[in-house]
Write a structure and sequence with these properties.
Blueprint (H helix, E strand, L loop, with lengths): L11 H20 L3 H4 L3 H17 L17 H8 L8 H11 L3 E7 L11 E7 L5 H8 L18 E6 L5 H7 L12 E5 L10 H17 L3 E9 L6 H13 L5 E7 L16
Helix pairs in contact: 1-4, 3-4, 3-5
Family: Belongs to the TRAFAC class TrmE-Era-EngA-EngB-Septin-like GTPase superfamily. EngB GTPase family.
Keywords: Cell cycle, Cell division, GTP-binding, Magnesium, Metal-binding, Nucleotide-binding, Septation
Protein name: EngB-type G domain-containing protein
Length: 282
């Protein structure tokens, strides 16, 4: 029977196919074709890549030895590389499939208030920062496809420490953390830490504590060698405020070139009073 998707059976040729798609994407965009015209089966391809990746992790799937191609740490990344060059589908099912494939297990590891409280720097780290109540914890929950991984609250400043979540750690990691048991096994090759930082600016905490957060943040940026990307969340209804500008300056001064800086606009679906825009507009 013919294969049902790119990744059925062997990953190497599928990765090459996704690279060809990525090369084709810009031409498709220039042609004016829409997502409806294309009807690309991204969800099926993502699920196929995830299934093949699971086989690669347990040893039941091996790359073709006759194909010289470097495989990504997770095969789903090759699909994402192709997707970003095509017109966006904005399909919730596809995004959910991506989330489930890339974030399979998540566990809270520790909350740190200074550098020595951080976990061992043995994997990459993705950091989320922004002013209080900008939606950091909600975004962390959405990205991990969990409802309450990071605590969300209407009261600004609920996050009071640098919260480290281990993604794709060894299956029994939570038991190891909770009970102190030594569990055999290793983390997956695509394991990383997701770090939820305190909301700066409007947090109802003493000035001394806000300054301590700022000092810790600066030291973290400069010394944490495993930091890979920093996501700065900005409320789309108001744009960057003074606190956002301060964060940007601090990032510009302290973030090493090896790490990426990404601005994420949040709450763009909320109605801005007096503008007649948003989901409540007539």
């Amino acid at each position: 029977t013919p294969p049902r998707h790119f990744y059925e059976g062997e990953p190497s040729m599928a990765v090459l196919a996704c690279r060809l798609l990525a090369d084709l994407g810009p031409t498709v965009r220039e042609s004016g074709l829409t997502k409806t015209d294309l009807s690309m089966p991204w969800t099926r391809i993502v699920n196929g890549a995830a299934q093949c990746e699971a086989g690669r992790r347990d040893g039941s799937v091996t790359p073709c030895i006759d194909v010289d191609v470097e495989l990504p740490v997770n095969l789903v990344h090759s699909v994402l590389g192709a997707m970003t060059t095509f017109p966006s589908d904005n399909d919730d099912r596809t995004y959910e499939a991506i989330s489930n494939a890339l974030v399979r297990r998540t566990v809270f590891v520790t909350g740190a208030v200074e550098m020595r409280g951080c976990p061992q720097a043995d994997r990459g780290e993705a950091v989320f920062i922004g002013r209080s109540n900008v939606g950091k914890s909600s975004l962390v929950n959405m990205v991990t496809n969990r409802k309450s991984l990071a605590y969300t609250s209407k009261r600004p400043g609920k996050t009071q420490q640098f919260n480290f979540f281990a993604v794709n750690d060894k299956p029994e990691r939570e038991r190891e953390i909770r009970y102190g048991d030594e569990i055999p096994g290793t983390m997956d090759s695509d394991s990383f830490y997701m770090v939820d930082l305190p909301g700066f600016g409007f947090a109802k905490v003493p000035q001394a504590q806000r300054q301590a957060w700022s000092d810790f943040f600066e030291e973290y940026l400069e010394k944490r060698k495993t930091l890979r990307v920093l996501f700065h969340l900005v409320d789309a209804r108001h744009g960057p405020i003074d606190e956002d500008a301060r964060i940007m300056r601090q990032v510009g001064q302290s973030l090493p070139r090896r790490a990426k800086y990404v601005v994420v606009l949040t709450k763009a679906d909320k109605n801005v009073k007096g503008t007649g825009t948003g989901k409540n507009a007539g």
